[in-house]
Amino acid sequence: MITTEPSDKPPAYNATGPGATGVTHGFPTGYFIIRNLSTNRVLDVGGSATADGSELFLWPEKEGSLVEGLRDPGANNQVFFIDHAGALCSLVSGHAVDVEDGIPVLRHRRPYTAPFPNKYSHPLPIFSYEARTNIIRATFATDPAYPSPSSPAAAESSADAWRSKDYVLTSVPLKALPSIIDSASNFFLSAASQLQLLPSRDGEQFDLDEDDVLDADRRDDEDVNDDNSTERWRHAKIIPLSLGWNEKASVHGGGKRDRERRRWLVVPLVKSKSPRLSQS
């Protein structure tokens, strides 16, 4: 892993990350879209923004064609590429993607400031794609919290805690606001739970029978859809996980929904239709 300690001199930038395939780090050469397999939405720069710090989030795909010359230019905010230095970049602006407080954002190139690195001036993260697992990772040159060298967080950072994390891109679920019926149901559920604590006329507490417990109390978390909002957007985020999280989760079978949200399909654009497509 690339490491950089705070200093007064900028380091030589080495765009080599784990799982890299040449300079593209597992991504295809040329242009591509990044689709989240859990939500079927694609990574998007909202409003075709070009400003420094503009957030990347998930939005339904706006263009169905994968042929560059046939695509609507208005969908270029959903197209990305890896530049010559290995940075993930947005086609609509040409700016690279950085991570700010866990959120993927557009980043303009910035002047060097000391002590380097810091939150304002630092090497860009290297994004890599592992097609076998559909995981997109960010590799940082330094602690992505960018603590001040004199802060307690910096002392903790020097213990290499951040280096023992696997930084993974995920979609963030968005739960629908409760309807009037849901609110009424929650009211009666709350009343029922309070009823369990009421004393009986004999001065003793009584409980609801097993058959009287509402089904809502028995639902397994895996059966509850916590991403059921009708909003078209979803947030994307880089989250720190323990090394080996995917292998451990696969063995124990836990966190299925969370693992699905961390799966992505990178789809390359093509210059022209293949002869087979042209004949169909």
Summary?
With 280 residues, the protein is α+β, with helices and mostly antiparallel strands. The chain has helices spanning 152-157, 180-195, 245-252, 256-261, 275-279; strands spanning 31-36, 42-45, 56-59, 80-82, 88-90, 96-100, 103-107, 126-130, 135-139, 165-172, 234-242, 264-268.
Q: What's the shape?
A: globular
Largest sheet: 4 strands, antiparallel
The H/E string reads: EEEEEEEEEHEHEHHEH
* CATH topology group of the largest domain: Trefoil (Acidic Fibroblast Growth Factor, subunit A)
Side-by-side strand order of the widest sheet: 5-4-1-12
Structural category: alpha+beta
Question: Spans of 5+ residues with little confidence (pLDDT < 50)?
Answer: 1-13, 17-21, 192-223, 275-280
Computed over alpha carbons, the radius of gyration is 24 Å
Quaternary class: single chain
- Helical fraction equals 10-25%
For the record, what CATH class of the largest domain applies?
Mainly Beta
What is the number of helices?
5
* Nearest-integer average pLDDT: 78
Total beta strands: 12
> Number of folding domains?
2
Corresponding CATH architecture of the largest domain: Trefoil
Any overview of this molecule?
- The chain has 280 residues and is an alpha+beta fold.
- It folds into two domains: 22-173 and 230-269, Trefoil (Acidic Fibroblast Growth Factor, subunit A) (Trefoil); 180-223, no CATH class.
- The chain contains five helices and twelve strands.
- It has helices at residues 152-157, 180-195, 245-252, 256-261, 275-279; strands spanning 31-36, 42-45, 56-59, 80-82, 88-90, 96-100, 103-107, 126-130, 135-139, 165-172, 234-242, 264-268.
- The chain has a four-stranded antiparallel β-sheet with strand order 5-4-1-12, with no helix packed on it. The chain has a four-stranded antiparallel β-sheet with strand order 2-3-11-10, with no helix packed on it.
- The two termini are 47 Å apart.
- Mean pLDDT is 78; it is low at 1-13, 17-21, 192-223 and 275-280.
